[in-house]
Amino acid sequence: MEQALYDVAAHPSHTKRFKANPRAFLSAYALEREEELMILEMDVAEMIRRSLNPMLAMRAFLSVEGREQLPEYLRRIQGT
Fold first, then answer.
1. Distance from CA of residue 41 to its chain's centroid?
2. Residues 39/31, Cβ–Cβ less than 8 Å
């Protein structure tokens, strides 16, 4: 899961591919079904609960959703 999220966050071309067809993009990674669903739903709170680095979660979320969605990211991680 970390590698997929890093690629989305660090490489604009990957971000574009992910946004165009998330399932196809994620098929290149050895993800468990739960991990794939967390990424598709951008369930950052659950990702962090499962030990994902919060900065990576934030970078991936903002890459996909847009920087203006920082308040939404913060709302989602409340209580983690």
1. 8
2. yes
pTM of the full structure:
0.91
Distance CA 28, CA 44 (A): 21
Residues 6 or more apart whose CB falls under 8 angstroms from that of 38 comprise 1, 46, 47, 50
How far apart CA 5 and CA 39 sit, in angstroms, is 8
Max Cα distance, the chain (Å): 33
The pLDDT confidence band at residue 65, using thresholds 50, 70 and 90, is very high
Distance CA 53, CA 48 (A): 6
Token pair for residue 76? 């989602």
- The string of pLDDT tens digits covering residues 30-55 is 999 999 999 999 999 999 999 999 99
